[in-house]
Amino acid sequence: MAEDKTSEVEEEEFGQEELQEIEEAYNIYAIPTGMPADDDEEEPPRILGTHNLAAAMKDLGYEPTEAETFAMIDQVDPDKTGFIDFKTFIYLLRKNVKTMNEDDLRIAFAVFDKDGNGTISIPEIKYITLHLGLQYPPDEIEDMMREADGDGDGKISFEDFAYFMTRK
User: Fold this and answer.
1) Most buried among 20, 31, 40, 158, by the most CB within 10 A?
2) 2: left (phi over 0), alpha (psi -120 to 50) or beta
3) What is the Cα–Cα distance from 90 to 25, expressed in whole angstroms?
4) How high is the pLDDT of residue 136?
5) In whole angstroms, what is the distance from residue 98 CA to residue 162 CA?
6) Which GO MF term does the entry hold, naming one (predicted)?
């Protein structure tokens, strides 16, 4: 089985509900190892065949390309055992999905940052919402701005935007 590369990424980075969804997707494709359950576990351990990695990720709403999938497998299974454990699956999700999501957020941020100065202002929000066919009263746009402007400087930085868009 693949070497455990999870020391830098902890399961606690996911919320309880999200972790449960991840475990359900993992278990759809994982097979029993044949080993007995540890004292702190109810069921025997399972392992995921690397050939099912993309399918398990797709069940969670992520769409890794074939190249991304092979790169992830090479990263955690250099000996080509063909299997990864749950902690390694968590590691891959946190490390790779976070990157994919950040790329998507940067693209979305760039749409709103019309003048390209690295921040989003109220006029830019008004411009984009108008061009998307959305009509918000000025007070709602100001409320959006206040809610998304984490540092209260009157502008939405990428960090403010990313936090606002990914909070639960």
Assistant:
1) 158
2) beta
3) 11
4) 84
5) 11
6) calcium ion binding
The DSSP result for the chain, as a single string, is: ------TTS-GGGS-HHHHHHHHHHHHHHEEE-SPPPPTT-SS--EEEEGGGHHHHHHHTT----HHHHHHHHHHH-TT--SEE-HHHHHHHIIIIIHHHHHHHHHHHHHHH-TT-SSEE-HHHHHHHHHHTT----HHHHHHHHHHH-TT-SSSEEHHHHHHHHH--
pLDDT, position 13: 65
On the 0-12 / 13-18 / 19+ scale of CB atoms within 10 A, 168 is exposed
Full-model pTM = 0.55
Token pair belonging to 30: 């994982």
Q: What is the pLDDT of residue 60?
A: 86
Residue 34 near residue 42 (C-beta atoms within 8 A): no
CA 140, CA 126: separation in Å to the nearest integer? 10
In the predicted structure, residue 82 carries a pLDDT above the cut 60: yes
Q: Rounded distance, CA 158 to CA 120, Å?
A: 8
Q: Quick check: 74 and 42 in contact, CB under 8 A?
A: no
The confidence band for 116, taking pLDDT boundaries of 50, 70 and 90, is: very high
Task: Measure the CA–CA gap between 45 and 58, rounded to whole angstroms.
Answer: 22
